[in-house]
Amino acid sequence: MNDKPEKLIDKKGVRLDGRKPDELRPIKIDVGVLSNADGSAYIEHGKNKILAGAYGPREVHPKHLALQDRMLLRCRYHMAPFSVQERKSPAPSRREVELSKVIRESLEPSIFMEYYPRTALDVFVEVLQADGGTRCASITAAALAVADAGIPMRDIVVACAAGKVEDTIVLDLMDEEDKLGSADVPLALMPNLNAVTLLQMDGILTVEEFEQAVNLAIEGCKKISAIQKETLKAKYVDVKEVEE
Amino acid sequence: MSSVITRLKQKQIAQLIEKGKRLDGRELTDYREITIEQGIIERAEGSARVLLGKTEVMAGTKVELGKPFPDTPNDGVLTVNAELVPLASPTFEPGPPGENSIELARIVDRGIRESKAIDTEKLCIEPGKKVFVIFVDVYVLNHDGNLIDASALAATAALLNTKMSKYQIEEGEVKLTSGYTQLPMKKHPITVTFAKIGNKLVVDPWLEEEQVMDARISMAFDDDDNICAIQKGGNGYFTPEQIQEAAKTAKEKAKQLRKKLDW
Amino acid sequence: MPIFFETRQIVTPGDLIAEGEYIAGENTYKENEKIYASRLGLVDTENKKVSVVALKAFYIPKAGDIVIGTVAEVGFNGWTVDINAPYPAILRAGDVLGRPFRPQEDDLSQVLDMRDLIVAKVASYDRTHDPQLTVGEPGLGKITRGQILKITPTKIPRVIGRKGSMVSMIKQETGCNIILGLNGVILVTGKTLESEQLALMAIHKIDEESHTSGLTDRVTQMLKEEKAKMEENKNE
Given CB atoms, is B251 within the 8 Å cutoff of chain A? Predict the structure, then answer.
């Protein structure tokens, strides 16, 4: 772990894992993977392996949390103890509490919350293996789980990060780049509406570099969105072929 | 964090902002009046109180001896905590920290950490074994909106005011001696928050604006005009253009605000 | 005024279906003269109306709907019934007893107990109040025999078929009585367990292949084949 690679990106712009600066890691998505959940999705994004399940709309427990004019959205982002190098305590950390909140706030603009007052929609995200960018991959999977549950939505939210390693703005940081790079900008997008629903940053960027990173992350989001939509459709196209 | 605001008031606020005006007479990019007092708690190693309009936040620092993190053996440790004290708002409840106070603490922490505000290497006493640990406790005493900027400002002001004991090493033991040195600071991060109301961005939202906003975005800047931390919050969204606009405005606002700090 | 998808083409939430003077139908929404899908489903157009037939959705009660529910709680003056919806339904004691409820004498659990199944009609429902049920009509009330099957509620119309053709065919082929709860719960009652199983098999097939065409023929075919097999087994 402590062996720092000499350079995160070489002169030709090739990154540690052989990617170009604007290239995504391999992404594999599956939908409808949990039989008990109303909607579910599984994503492998780089070495991230993340499972998301959506339950609802359903009765709110405890009852006093119910909102009279809209649905209550609850999210829990959680990392499995074995998902990282050193065992992570299963008790929710402050980081997990914060990520649960920002993931919820990234999904909420996409959902017609006002349709089902006094109900709850619970979204559970379990990170089974963490690479860089778990929050983005979690959002991509969670949004798909909500769509799979048949919840009316404005758009399917998708997320991807951009950042800076050495002096280059790059797309979709993996673990080493996230830890050793100089900035990370995770971003979630409603692609059809061009609306950013999650934006965070840490590191150091000039305003111009930040603008570049945002644009690159948006491009990445659009590419992942295409995979997301194809996955959702494929679940039903398979059945459609029975006809012929 | 919402308490009830009438629909009429909501409309009033939104309509005014659409025309570029605000209920309290400010321009869209104006801060409320800011007062910073440092060194107000004698028992703390550093302290500051920030008044942002009626919003009041106190920050106190404590310096203790501790162990460094294994992956950064030569660096001192920074720990930020935030308390939404129940007397500050009817919506704050006693009990373990909720997501709002945890998020607030982590935003303040990120601004300080990512800007490399503290020269943490100078806090190392014995690599891998003994370092100074800096605790920053943010205490919200009155909530009238924009706790993020007030807390970040209070934290930076308190750090600038922080004194550390001098020490000697005698037979491998750290002995604190008389006299103090100033906490070594390299940067002075400033956080600027916007609320999105309708399709407009307003700087430094006060409570009623927060209650009607769609979303907020906070951006921290270092002394060299670099962005070092961002956090979007709330249940709405921003267009990419609004984000760029926010970054440009925040850069100027951060410069102005930094002048209010003494160091 | 372009339309970007053909009828029966699959769309996902956020897909732009049409632009201009169209009317937003079910499972779509309109913003700035653009109509987008709000659910995964198949595009359907009727004159100027654009809608999406959802491939997955849950049941939202509507006054007048026939539903099949499970008693979830015996309360002080009525029952809470799980009708496979986001909201629990309420059935008042007076409605079942057909007379005013006498708290001193009536033991509600003797009338309907936890986990009992009922066929009921939604008497009322709106955004602010939980759905209220009634059993005060012929054919409604406690279910004592038969088989229960849960399918996606949006697929119930497919089980009914055009002018009831599908469900009539299944009834005819299997000799079973079938009650279709609009909440996706189906009750099948027949003379023998075998005939009930046959009807369930047919409905299951419809649930799985609901968005394909020529389904009635395939289901009829399957039922005839299965019946022939059963006859053979009997003869052996």
Answer: yes
Q: How far is CA B23 from the centre of its chain?
A: 25
Nearest Cα of chain A lies from the Cα of C234 at a distance, in angstroms, of 31
Give a yes or no: residue A112 inside a domain: yes
Burial of C91 (0-12, 13-18, 19+ CB in 10 A): buried
Contact A190 B237 (CB under 8 A): yes
Alpha-carbon span B214 to A24, nearest angstrom? 31
Closest CA to B226 of B110, B114, B109, B150: B114
* Domain CATH for C136: 2.40.50.140
Buried/exposed A208-224: b ≥16 CB within 10 Å, e otherwise: ebbbebbebbbebbebb
DSSP, collapsed to helix, strand or coil, labels residue B105 as helix
Structural domains in chain B? 7-258 (3.30.230.70)
Task: Inspect the interface and report whether the beta carbons of A237 and C211 lie closer than 8 Å.
Answer: no
Tell which of C142, C160, C194 closes a domain. C142
Q: Which residues between 199 and 228 in chain C have a beta carbon less than 8 angstroms from any beta carbon of chain A?
A: 208-209, 211-214
Write the CATH number for C182: 3.30.1370.10
Residue type, B26: R
Give a yes or no: residue C209 inside a domain.
Answer: yes
Mean pLDDT of the B163-190 span: 90
Q: Cα–Cα distance between A105 and A143 in angstroms, integer?
A: 12
**Which residue from A95, A193, A205 is facing B226, i.e. has the nearest CB?**
A205
Instruction: Kindly report the pTM of this predicted structure.
Output: 0.90
pLDDT recorded at residue A3:
60
Q: Give pLDDT tens digits for C85-143.
A: 999 999 999 999 988 888 888 899 999 999 999 999 999 999 889 999 999 999 999 99
Q: Cβ separation of C13 and A156 shorter than 8 Å? A: yes
In terms of domains, do C198 and C230 share one? yes
Distance between A99 CA and the closest CA of chain B, angstroms: 9
The total domain count for chain C is: 3
pLDDT tens digit sequence for C170-204? 999 999 999 999 999 999 999 999 999 999 999 99
| Nearby residues of A229 by Cβ (< 8 Å), 6 or more positions away | A156, C12, C15
Report the residue from B229, B235, B243 with minimal CB separation from A202. B229
Residue B207 C-alpha from the chain's centroid? 17
Q: Report the gap between the CA of A22 and the closest CA in chain C (Å).
A: 26
Q: Which residue of A has its CA nearest to B104?
A: A98
Task: For residue range B18-76, list pLDDT tens digits in order.
Answer: 999 999 999 999 999 999 999 999 999 999 999 999 999 999 999 999 999 999 999 99
Instruction: Provide the number of structural domains found in chain A.
Output: 1
* Percentage with pLDDT > 70 across chain C: 99
Q: List the domain range (segments joined by +) for residue A191.
A: 27-243
**CATH number (domain holding residue C14):** 2.40.50.100
Q: Look at residue C26 and give its three-state secondary structure.
A: coil
- What is the distance in angstroms between the Cα of A22 and the nearest Cα belonging to chain B? 19
Q: Which of C119, C142, C165 is the last residue of a domain?
A: C142
What is the extent of the structural domain holding C91?
A: 66-142
The reply to whether C60 falls in a domain is no
> C50 and C23: one domain?
yes
pLDDT digit string (tens) for B68-120?
A: 999 999 999 999 999 999 999 999 999 899 999 999 999 999 999 999 999 99
Query: For the domain that residue A67 is a member of, what is the CATH number?
Result: 3.30.230.70
